[in-house]
Queue: 2 jobs
Job 1
Amino acid sequence: MSEQIRGEWPLYEVFVRGKRGLNHVHVGSLHASDDALALRHARDVYTRRNEGVSIWVVRSTDITASSPSEKDPLFAPSGDKVYRHPTFYEIPDNVPHM
Amino acid sequence: MSSAVADHELEAHFDATIEHADRIEPRDWMPDGYRKSLVRQIAQHAHSEIIGMQPEGNWIGRAPSLRRKAILLAKVQDEAGHGLYLYSAAETLGVSRDELTEMLISGKQKYSSIFNYPTLSYTDVGTIGWLVDGAAICNQVPLCRTSFGPYGRAMIRICKEESFHQRQGFELLMTMMRGTDEQRAMVQESVNRFWWPALMMFGPPDEDSTNTEQSMTWGIKTHTNDELRQRFVDMSVPQAKALGVTFPDPELVWNEERGQHDFGQPDWDEFWAVVKGDGPCNAQRIVHRKRAWDEGAWVREAALAFANDSSRKGESA
């Protein structure tokens, strides 16, 4: 109904692949009335100088994010596992290519 | 646990982040004052980019060649882009785009006083690129390391593009300086008009700047207004010499002892008058922005109606 369309255009997050072989990286956000226009706007706002070869747009409300307040418990399981890092292992200097 | 204790811990965590020159991100806890300061500064910055499209946009239809017109179009489009980067950074702090637009149009939020000066000749396009964008670069480069992540990231994008703005302006002026006496006189006249307003872009002197100290404690700003103004003067003097123009300041002289230039103060009464709304173009700028906003309403509504309609039918957009 016309009342419900009076709001702001929804917010989209924009991800750009800088060149082939690289990941898409979050570059910012923008408002658009639908997905197709979000892509057009993203091209105009974020790639005016060949900054990308591919763009993803996603409605901000569709992103599930970890909360900063649970950062410690969420990442705790990896905090005490130093044996996951190569530097945990002592290898003599005379062993090459390792 | 009482919320007072929790707040205390959160604040300690915030302070430690700032102290380590680490970045604050949108969903982190932050003091209300920090959030308010950032909204004020980022919004003012975004509004400046959007209002800044007007003085130069004034000359797109009258650019002297297709090449100059294409350059000016690209530049004004960049200003729009810069405004959008900054609005989206401000929105991560919980303020909506419509609220920001409303606060600009109603005068509750400010924009840079420089854009309340008129562009009287096409030469001003060059002078704005050289001096106004040059001053903006001085202000903005340190902001790339500001403590609020989205603001710093927006500034990095903007700074990459500002260099084109400054160079096209300088090149435009150089071209005119190679022209007739009349063209050279136009450049000098334009520089005379913009020099003092450009110095004002750094804000009031440090002793009169109410926000600077707290902003520096929070890592929002990293240099004072006077430091940046000095840097701008020192950068601009050799550029003016290369161009063959002078600045309208009899006190401007190299100070061997300080290793910097001494220079005169802008007319701060004029600055405050322009900030308070009495500049040459304040009313015109806001009327224009409001008209664009009002006249675009049907487009925004039509696009949403279309989006709602096609999703009801289950069509892919």
Job 2
Amino acid sequence: MNVKHLTPFVDALVKVLNDHGIDNLKRGKLLKKDVMNVDLDVTSVVGIGGGIRGNIAYSLSSETCRHLFVSMGLVNPSDSQRSKILKAVGVFAELIINEAARIFLDGGILITSAPPTIVSGNEMFFIISPVQTITIDIETPYGAIETNIGLEE
Amino acid sequence: MSQGLQLYKPFLNSVCDTFAMMANIKVYIEGAFSSETDEITSYGVSSIINYTGKIKGRFLLDMQPSVALTLAQNVLGSYYNNERDEMVLATISEMNNVIAGNAVSILNNRYSLGLWLSPPYIFTGKDAVIVLPRIRSASVGCNTLYGKLKVYIAFERGTEK
Amino acid sequence: MKKTALIVDDSPLIHNLLRRALEKCNYEVCGDARNGKEGVELFKKLAPDVVFMDINMPVMDGLEAVKDIKDFLGKAGGGSRIIMLSAVGDDEIVAKAQELGVKTFIRKPFNDYKIISALSMVE
């Protein structure tokens, strides 16, 4: 997988968080993942097409979701309904992918995206790419966000 | 036939054909398509594939673990007892690719929709709930000798000219 | 002597299914390639009797690989030894493959009968 095609998805996540006032982020290392077991209970997956094909997944815990999205203004502090939080995960993923698309376009690559799918559950196991999945953690003040990238190249 | 049904039918036919041809599993369709809420409780193993073109949408194949295990066993000729086995999930994911690829090519030939598939993804886990925002799905329940599955299909107007 | 087959497909599942079907037809799978580029390289090295070629693959797609094989074989052609195998059976793609000399197509899903029938057309 071309590293140049991985970083926009991470840079976009950082930019969206920064734009919504979430700072003090710690970026982990890019790691190859043989098996995509996810300990975090909420995952949003977005299919990518156009110049690059694949799937991108952002995973975080329910607690991280709640605190992060209240802080970002995506949900009201009084919103405790799980379905509202999960829908906000979809909005969050779309913000990131739109930003990633902008970064790719600046580099001359047009990507399209499908609406996100949000999955909530325990002991989740995913396959988002038949070839290889690359993972990177971003540590926020409210908990970790795990980015998994599976591109077909 | 309604426009929606014209788009859904190739997917359902492709599910039946692919299960029969590649896994020797007969699929019994239970009832007609109905509109779904955007929150789905998974049967256990779910595979999703997106398509984009003049219209875009999503195909979700959701099945009980017993169906997934039998399907992988019949296709690969080996015994599996855990739906979390990578080979089991990879098999279902590839079957979904074949199902959606076949349906999409029928739709392209029939309606010149220029649809292209994104790579499929698949997941399994405990108490999984799937939220599918923005595009409302139509679903139909199916049965096999080995357990239940459900087919969800969604379309919305795309952006390509 | 057994005839030889090269499988070019990015799906391990399809390799597995084809291998089983081909063994029943007394073929030996002499090579497994995961993309068109690997497929062309193995074709040059192994000179198989028949090639099962997927269309949509990473790195190099099946149509491009058929073109390279055709160029490699020169006047001898090569399309007649290739069976295109894909989920995407759009008329337009089939027409492009036919222009390259491919005469036999199998649309996924397939079973052993479709494979036997396709082999009888290239033998």
